[in-house]
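User: Structure tokens for this complex, please. No commentary.
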Amino acid sequence: MQGDQVLDCKGLSCPMPIMKLAIAMKKLETGKVIELLGTDPGSKDDVPAWCDRTGNSLLEVVEEDDGFTFFIRKE
Amino acid sequence: MAESGLKKKGILAELFSTFFSKSWPMWVGGILLAVGNISLFIVLKPWGASGGIKNWGDSLYNSIGMDLSTMGPLLKFPYSVLCIMTLVGALAGALLSKQFGLRFPPPGELLKGFLGGIIMAIGAMVGVSCTIGGFLSGWPALSMGAVVYALGLTLGTWIAVKYLLFEIEKMPKLSSGKTSSFLTAGKGRGGWQPILGVLVIIGGLIIAFNYTGSSSVLAWYTAIGIFFGLVCQRSRFCIVRALREPFMSGDSKPAVAVMVSILATMFGFVVIKFMGLRPAMMWVWPHFWVPAIIGGTIFGIGMTISGGCVVGSLWRAGEGHVKLIAALIGFALSAPLVVKYISKPFLEGLPENLKQQVFLPDHIGYGASVGVFVLLILLWYVFVKWNERTGKFSAF
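Assistant:
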């Protein structure tokens, strides 16, 4: 899977990944997909919860060697 | 993800995965922290964090020949031991759940951690407490100064959320750049982490046991410190989130977790104080109201910029976030100097009526005081829930 925009949040800790995601999503067209790379274990809970609350779709979570990649579609 | 349901695990493996495969709900962490906090009060005094880290700095400065400390040697002062063990407990929690990893953020983030730590030190020393002593333990101690301190924290958090939003929009370079991580457990890697985690817990318990010969207080502070770290890491208990999310995502869960913790802690603290088991004025700091509002606001700004209060930094440092390690270093290095050059002169120069110790039961009795605090928590609950629905104060 490939996103339309890559958001590199590696090395960042709470709240930076979610803040960056929210701001990037605001600027994104509906239907496009953000690929968020993160290494904070907290993101594994925070990103799905944020998608739930905002009504965006978490398409896939891929576990990487040092963290996760989240694919989120703007709805 | 769902394989556990298909493949039958052993009973002990299932027990292990109950605790170490998914995060615990934060409110469960809140209740467990309350149990630890009440136990700590029975052993000696309630939970506090800023004094312990300040003592780390004092000890360092004393070891290079400067004379700043009054709280005693690093491994003899209960609160510096408690802080060290909180970090160790979080390290164990992260290892057991394969979440440990040394994570180096971009340089700008490292700087934000360090500066956030210094700002927190100023807030804690001027305000005579931090999010623990002045809030999570301060409200259950029925201190009115803690109510003012919490207002300050909220104001500071609000200011710093505005700053962070501005920073991400206008200065994106600060939070991007070269990053690296080491020792992480990815897919199929890091089987060593849980084994080391068990060893860390055993090591911690041996340290606690060793203290029993000289000081049972230090033995308990060691054990409860490990417990605090483990619980915080597994539940990702975070007071910054509790105060920040209403201004950010609107999520009310972290705030509710802190409310649950305060209520549960209050139950124990009120019994202990009412029955005279410990002095009633304990954790009622002389900061009502000027030091509390100024210190709380400054601390709120610092903790939001670094991404963790003192305890939040401790457990995230244990998990391997170098930004929060930088925050602890910033706090420890600056706190002794802040006391000497800023907070001591400031607090000494302040008129007595602006830095009072206000123990609410002295004025309206225990029953009404508990009622006032329950009402405050109810108001806070209504606010965060209403805000979650309407998004009135949330940025996104």
